[in-house]
Design goal:
This protein has about 325 residues and is mainly alpha-helical. It is built from 15 helices and four strands. The longest helix is centred in the last third of the chain and has 24 residues.
Length: about 325
Amino acid sequence: MPRVEETAYPRLRSTPSAQDLAIAYTPTWDEATLASEAAKGASARLGFLVLLKTYQRLDYPVPLADVPPAIIEHIAHTVRLAPDVLDPAAYDAAGTRRHHLVVIREYLRVRPFGPPARHILIRALGEAARTKGDLIDLINVGIEELVRERCELPAFSTLEKAARKVRATRNRQLYRNTHGQSTTIFGLAFLLGIHLYPRIRGWKKLVWCRPSAESRYAHIDTLFAESADWEVIATHLPDMLRVALSITEGLLTPSTILRRLGTYSRKNRLYHAFFELGRVVRTGFLLRYIADRELQATIQAAMNKNESFNCFAQWVTFGDDGTITENDRLEQHLD
Protein backbone atom coordinates (compact mmCIF):
# COMPACT_ATOMS: atom_id res chain seq x y z
CA MET A 1 0.00 0.00 0.00
CA PRO A 2 1.55 3.34 -1.02
CA ARG A 3 2.02 5.94 1.69
CA VAL A 4 1.09 9.55 1.11
CA GLU A 5 4.64 10.72 1.80
CA GLU A 6 5.90 8.50 -1.05
CA THR A 7 3.80 10.40 -3.60
CA ALA A 8 3.52 13.97 -4.86
CA TYR A 9 0.34 14.51 -2.85
CA PRO A 10 0.87 17.92 -1.20
CA ARG A 11 0.93 18.15 2.59
CA LEU A 12 1.59 20.85 5.15
CA ARG A 13 4.91 20.83 6.93
CA SER A 14 4.55 20.61 10.68
CA THR A 15 7.35 23.13 11.16
CA PRO A 16 7.56 25.41 8.12
CA SER A 17 10.69 27.48 7.73
CA ALA A 18 10.73 31.26 7.76
CA GLN A 19 11.35 31.22 4.02
CA ASP A 20 8.32 28.96 3.43
CA LEU A 21 6.14 31.24 5.52
CA ALA A 22 7.28 34.33 3.64
CA ILE A 23 6.89 32.83 0.16
CA ALA A 24 3.80 30.63 0.48
CA TYR A 25 1.73 32.05 3.32
CA THR A 26 2.02 35.83 3.06
CA PRO A 27 -1.32 37.29 1.83
CA THR A 28 -1.17 39.82 -0.98
CA TRP A 29 -3.01 43.14 -0.94
CA ASP A 30 -5.71 41.75 -3.24
CA GLU A 31 -6.17 38.69 -1.01
CA ALA A 32 -6.47 40.81 2.12
CA THR A 33 -9.06 42.97 0.34
CA LEU A 34 -10.99 39.88 -0.74
CA ALA A 35 -11.00 38.64 2.86
CA SER A 36 -12.40 41.94 4.08
CA GLU A 37 -15.21 41.73 1.51
CA ALA A 38 -16.06 38.05 2.03
CA ALA A 39 -15.71 37.81 5.82
CA LYS A 40 -17.18 39.82 8.66
CA GLY A 41 -15.22 40.19 11.85
CA ALA A 42 -11.60 39.55 12.72
CA SER A 43 -12.05 35.83 13.40
CA ALA A 44 -13.80 35.12 10.10
CA ARG A 45 -11.30 37.26 8.17
CA LEU A 46 -8.33 35.42 9.63
CA GLY A 47 -10.01 32.06 9.03
CA PHE A 48 -10.68 33.02 5.40
CA LEU A 49 -7.04 33.96 4.81
CA VAL A 50 -5.68 30.79 6.42
CA LEU A 51 -8.07 28.68 4.33
CA LEU A 52 -7.10 30.60 1.19
CA LYS A 53 -3.34 30.35 1.63
CA THR A 54 -3.38 26.69 2.60
CA TYR A 55 -5.69 25.96 -0.36
CA GLN A 56 -3.23 27.69 -2.69
CA ARG A 57 -0.43 25.58 -1.26
CA LEU A 58 -2.22 22.21 -1.35
CA ASP A 59 -4.82 22.47 -4.13
CA TYR A 60 -7.44 21.14 -1.69
CA PRO A 61 -9.09 22.50 1.47
CA VAL A 62 -7.69 21.40 4.79
CA PRO A 63 -9.33 21.72 8.23
CA LEU A 64 -7.87 24.69 10.07
CA ALA A 65 -7.47 22.47 13.12
CA ASP A 66 -4.77 20.61 11.14
CA VAL A 67 -2.88 23.78 10.17
CA PRO A 68 0.38 24.27 12.11
CA PRO A 69 0.14 27.23 14.55
CA ALA A 70 3.17 28.85 12.92
CA ILE A 71 1.22 29.39 9.69
CA ILE A 72 -1.78 30.92 11.49
CA GLU A 73 0.49 33.19 13.50
CA HIS A 74 2.39 34.35 10.40
CA ILE A 75 -0.80 35.20 8.49
CA ALA A 76 -2.29 36.95 11.54
CA HIS A 77 0.78 39.13 12.07
CA THR A 78 0.90 39.98 8.34
CA VAL A 79 -2.64 41.42 8.39
CA ARG A 80 -2.20 42.85 11.92
CA LEU A 81 -4.57 40.53 13.73
CA ALA A 82 -4.10 38.65 16.98
CA PRO A 83 -3.71 34.89 16.34
CA ASP A 84 -5.98 34.02 19.28
CA VAL A 85 -9.02 35.70 17.66
CA LEU A 86 -9.41 32.50 15.59
CA ASP A 87 -10.75 29.25 17.03
CA PRO A 88 -9.82 26.71 14.27
CA ALA A 89 -12.20 23.99 15.50
CA ALA A 90 -15.14 26.38 15.71
CA TYR A 91 -14.38 27.78 12.26
CA ASP A 92 -14.26 24.27 10.74
CA ALA A 93 -17.69 23.43 12.17
CA ALA A 94 -19.35 26.69 11.10
CA GLY A 95 -21.24 27.22 7.86
CA THR A 96 -19.07 30.26 7.24
CA ARG A 97 -16.25 27.96 6.13
CA ARG A 98 -18.40 26.44 3.37
CA HIS A 99 -19.30 29.91 2.09
CA HIS A 100 -15.66 30.98 2.18
CA LEU A 101 -14.67 27.87 0.26
CA VAL A 102 -17.04 28.78 -2.58
CA VAL A 103 -15.53 32.26 -2.77
CA ILE A 104 -11.99 30.88 -2.72
CA ARG A 105 -12.68 28.41 -5.54
CA GLU A 106 -14.13 31.17 -7.67
CA TYR A 107 -11.19 33.45 -6.91
CA LEU A 108 -8.63 30.76 -7.77
CA ARG A 109 -10.72 29.43 -10.69
CA VAL A 110 -10.58 25.88 -9.39
CA ARG A 111 -13.34 23.34 -9.89
CA PRO A 112 -14.39 21.18 -6.93
CA PHE A 113 -13.76 17.47 -7.25
CA GLY A 114 -16.97 16.13 -8.78
CA PRO A 115 -18.00 13.91 -11.73
CA PRO A 116 -16.15 16.01 -14.38
CA ALA A 117 -12.95 15.99 -12.34
CA ARG A 118 -13.33 12.26 -11.68
CA HIS A 119 -13.64 11.68 -15.42
CA ILE A 120 -10.41 13.62 -15.98
CA LEU A 121 -8.68 11.56 -13.30
CA ILE A 122 -9.82 8.18 -14.65
CA ARG A 123 -8.87 9.15 -18.20
CA ALA A 124 -5.38 10.21 -17.10
CA LEU A 125 -4.90 7.06 -15.03
CA GLY A 126 -6.06 4.89 -17.93
CA GLU A 127 -3.56 6.47 -20.30
CA ALA A 128 -0.75 6.17 -17.76
CA ALA A 129 -1.59 2.54 -16.94
CA ARG A 130 -0.61 1.54 -20.48
CA THR A 131 3.06 2.07 -19.60
CA LYS A 132 3.12 2.29 -15.79
CA GLY A 133 2.19 -0.36 -13.27
CA ASP A 134 3.37 1.16 -10.00
CA LEU A 135 0.59 2.71 -7.90
CA ILE A 136 2.80 5.60 -6.81
CA ASP A 137 3.50 6.53 -10.43
CA LEU A 138 -0.20 6.35 -11.31
CA ILE A 139 -1.20 8.50 -8.32
CA ASN A 140 1.40 11.11 -9.26
CA VAL A 141 0.10 11.21 -12.84
CA GLY A 142 -3.44 11.72 -11.52
CA ILE A 143 -2.33 14.56 -9.25
CA GLU A 144 -0.46 16.27 -12.06
CA GLU A 145 -3.41 16.07 -14.46
CA LEU A 146 -5.94 17.35 -11.92
CA VAL A 147 -3.73 20.32 -11.07
CA ARG A 148 -3.16 21.04 -14.75
CA GLU A 149 -6.92 21.00 -15.41
CA ARG A 150 -7.53 23.33 -12.43
CA CYS A 151 -9.43 20.70 -10.44
CA GLU A 152 -9.43 20.34 -6.69
CA LEU A 153 -7.52 17.32 -5.40
CA PRO A 154 -9.64 14.70 -3.64
CA ALA A 155 -8.61 12.83 -0.50
CA PHE A 156 -5.53 10.67 -0.93
CA SER A 157 -7.61 7.53 -0.34
CA THR A 158 -9.78 8.48 -3.34
CA LEU A 159 -6.73 8.77 -5.56
CA GLU A 160 -5.40 5.44 -4.34
CA LYS A 161 -8.70 3.62 -4.92
CA ALA A 162 -9.02 5.07 -8.42
CA ALA A 163 -5.44 4.08 -9.29
CA ARG A 164 -5.99 0.54 -7.98
CA LYS A 165 -9.22 0.16 -9.94
CA VAL A 166 -7.73 1.43 -13.19
CA ARG A 167 -4.63 -0.72 -12.80
CA ALA A 168 -6.74 -3.81 -12.10
CA THR A 169 -8.84 -3.10 -15.19
CA ARG A 170 -5.75 -2.60 -17.33
CA ASN A 171 -4.19 -5.79 -15.98
CA ARG A 172 -7.25 -7.71 -17.15
CA GLN A 173 -6.53 -6.58 -20.71
CA LEU A 174 -4.24 -9.01 -22.49
CA TYR A 175 -2.58 -8.03 -25.76
CA ARG A 176 -1.33 -10.81 -28.02
CA ASN A 177 -0.23 -11.26 -31.58
CA THR A 178 -2.17 -13.27 -34.18
CA HIS A 179 -1.11 -16.65 -32.76
CA GLY A 180 -2.71 -15.83 -29.39
CA GLN A 181 -6.27 -15.55 -30.61
CA SER A 182 -7.68 -19.09 -30.97
CA THR A 183 -11.37 -19.48 -30.23
CA THR A 184 -10.81 -21.64 -27.16
CA ILE A 185 -8.46 -19.04 -25.69
CA PHE A 186 -11.10 -16.37 -26.28
CA GLY A 187 -13.68 -18.48 -24.44
CA LEU A 188 -11.44 -19.30 -21.48
CA ALA A 189 -10.20 -15.69 -21.15
CA PHE A 190 -13.80 -14.45 -21.12
CA LEU A 191 -14.72 -16.70 -18.19
CA LEU A 192 -11.55 -15.62 -16.33
CA GLY A 193 -12.55 -11.96 -16.69
CA ILE A 194 -9.65 -11.21 -19.04
CA HIS A 195 -10.20 -8.89 -22.01
CA LEU A 196 -8.21 -10.44 -24.83
CA TYR A 197 -7.03 -7.87 -27.38
CA PRO A 198 -4.98 -9.64 -30.06
CA ARG A 199 -3.58 -8.09 -33.20
CA ILE A 200 -5.19 -10.17 -35.94
CA ARG A 201 -3.77 -9.98 -39.42
CA GLY A 202 -6.29 -11.84 -41.64
CA TRP A 203 -9.43 -11.04 -39.67
CA LYS A 204 -11.54 -11.15 -42.86
CA LYS A 205 -10.76 -14.86 -43.21
CA LEU A 206 -12.04 -15.74 -39.73
CA VAL A 207 -15.46 -17.25 -39.14
CA TRP A 208 -17.85 -14.66 -37.69
CA CYS A 209 -20.87 -16.25 -36.08
CA ARG A 210 -24.43 -14.95 -36.18
CA PRO A 211 -26.66 -14.93 -33.10
CA SER A 212 -29.13 -17.04 -35.13
CA ALA A 213 -29.50 -18.31 -38.65
CA GLU A 214 -32.18 -15.68 -39.30
CA SER A 215 -30.02 -12.70 -38.28
CA ARG A 216 -29.13 -10.36 -41.13
CA TYR A 217 -27.14 -7.10 -41.11
CA ALA A 218 -26.85 -4.25 -43.56
CA HIS A 219 -23.41 -3.58 -45.08
CA ILE A 220 -21.52 -6.23 -43.06
CA ASP A 221 -23.68 -9.32 -43.57
CA THR A 222 -21.05 -10.96 -45.79
CA LEU A 223 -18.66 -11.13 -42.83
CA PHE A 224 -20.91 -13.60 -41.00
CA ALA A 225 -21.10 -17.30 -41.79
CA GLU A 226 -22.30 -19.84 -39.25
CA SER A 227 -24.64 -19.19 -36.34
CA ALA A 228 -23.68 -19.71 -32.70
CA ASP A 229 -24.63 -22.98 -31.01
CA TRP A 230 -26.18 -21.55 -27.85
CA GLU A 231 -27.44 -24.98 -26.75
CA VAL A 232 -23.92 -26.38 -26.47
CA ILE A 233 -22.80 -23.28 -24.51
CA ALA A 234 -25.75 -23.45 -22.11
CA THR A 235 -25.42 -27.21 -21.57
CA HIS A 236 -21.73 -27.13 -20.68
CA LEU A 237 -21.59 -23.72 -19.03
CA PRO A 238 -21.39 -25.26 -15.50
CA ASP A 239 -18.41 -27.38 -16.59
CA MET A 240 -16.68 -24.38 -18.15
CA LEU A 241 -17.26 -22.31 -15.00
CA ARG A 242 -15.75 -25.10 -12.89
CA VAL A 243 -12.65 -25.01 -15.07
CA ALA A 244 -12.40 -21.22 -14.71
CA LEU A 245 -12.84 -21.42 -10.93
CA SER A 246 -10.19 -24.15 -10.69
CA ILE A 247 -7.73 -21.91 -12.53
CA THR A 248 -8.63 -18.92 -10.35
CA GLU A 249 -8.08 -20.97 -7.17
CA GLY A 250 -4.78 -22.31 -8.45
CA LEU A 251 -5.97 -25.91 -8.65
CA LEU A 252 -5.40 -26.05 -12.40
CA THR A 253 -2.96 -24.14 -14.59
CA PRO A 254 -4.16 -22.45 -17.79
CA SER A 255 -1.45 -24.22 -19.80
CA THR A 256 -2.77 -27.61 -18.69
CA ILE A 257 -6.35 -26.98 -19.77
CA LEU A 258 -5.21 -25.31 -23.00
CA ARG A 259 -3.12 -28.35 -23.89
CA ARG A 260 -6.16 -30.53 -23.36
CA LEU A 261 -8.35 -28.23 -25.42
CA GLY A 262 -5.71 -27.56 -28.05
CA THR A 263 -6.32 -30.76 -29.96
CA TYR A 264 -9.56 -30.97 -31.88
CA SER A 265 -11.62 -33.98 -30.90
CA ARG A 266 -15.18 -34.82 -31.77
CA LYS A 267 -15.49 -36.69 -28.47
CA ASN A 268 -14.37 -33.73 -26.35
CA ARG A 269 -17.62 -31.93 -25.61
CA LEU A 270 -15.93 -29.41 -23.32
CA TYR A 271 -13.70 -28.40 -26.22
CA HIS A 272 -16.78 -27.76 -28.36
CA ALA A 273 -18.33 -25.66 -25.60
CA PHE A 274 -15.22 -23.48 -25.24
CA PHE A 275 -14.97 -23.32 -29.03
CA GLU A 276 -18.54 -22.06 -29.42
CA LEU A 277 -18.21 -19.57 -26.56
CA GLY A 278 -14.92 -18.34 -28.00
CA ARG A 279 -16.47 -17.79 -31.42
CA VAL A 280 -19.15 -15.60 -29.87
CA VAL A 281 -16.65 -13.59 -27.81
CA ARG A 282 -14.23 -13.23 -30.73
CA THR A 283 -17.02 -12.04 -33.03
CA GLY A 284 -17.91 -9.34 -30.50
CA PHE A 285 -14.26 -8.31 -30.31
CA LEU A 286 -13.92 -8.17 -34.10
CA LEU A 287 -16.99 -5.95 -34.39
CA ARG A 288 -15.50 -3.52 -31.87
CA TYR A 289 -12.10 -3.76 -33.56
CA ILE A 290 -13.27 -2.74 -37.04
CA ALA A 291 -15.42 0.10 -35.66
CA ASP A 292 -13.02 1.63 -33.12
CA ARG A 293 -9.88 3.30 -34.48
CA GLU A 294 -8.70 4.10 -30.96
CA LEU A 295 -8.84 0.41 -30.04
CA GLN A 296 -6.83 -0.46 -33.15
CA ALA A 297 -4.20 2.13 -32.22
CA THR A 298 -4.08 0.89 -28.62
CA ILE A 299 -3.51 -2.71 -29.69
CA GLN A 300 -0.86 -1.67 -32.20
CA ALA A 301 0.95 0.43 -29.58
CA ALA A 302 0.88 -2.43 -27.07
CA MET A 303 2.25 -4.89 -29.61
CA ASN A 304 4.99 -2.46 -30.64
CA LYS A 305 5.99 -2.22 -27.00
CA ASN A 306 6.08 -6.01 -26.68
CA GLU A 307 8.15 -6.36 -29.83
CA SER A 308 10.55 -3.66 -28.66
CA PHE A 309 11.08 -5.57 -25.42
CA ASN A 310 11.71 -8.79 -27.35
CA CYS A 311 14.29 -7.02 -29.50
CA PHE A 312 15.94 -5.65 -26.35
CA ALA A 313 15.98 -9.13 -24.78
CA GLN A 314 17.67 -10.54 -27.89
CA TRP A 315 20.18 -7.69 -27.86
CA VAL A 316 21.32 -8.37 -24.27
CA THR A 317 21.58 -12.17 -24.68
CA PHE A 318 25.01 -13.70 -24.83
CA GLY A 319 26.63 -17.12 -24.97
CA ASP A 320 25.25 -18.66 -28.17
CA ASP A 321 21.91 -16.84 -28.21
CA GLY A 322 21.59 -16.92 -24.46
CA THR A 323 22.59 -20.57 -24.01
CA ILE A 324 25.78 -21.29 -22.04
CA THR A 325 26.93 -24.76 -22.93
CA GLU A 326 30.00 -24.95 -20.69
CA ASN A 327 30.22 -24.94 -16.89
CA ASP A 328 33.83 -23.72 -16.88
CA ARG A 329 34.26 -19.95 -16.91
CA LEU A 330 37.31 -20.05 -19.20
CA GLU A 331 35.42 -22.19 -21.69
CA GLN A 332 32.52 -19.78 -21.54
CA HIS A 333 34.82 -16.92 -22.57
CA LEU A 334 36.34 -19.02 -25.36
CA ASP A 335 32.87 -19.88 -26.65
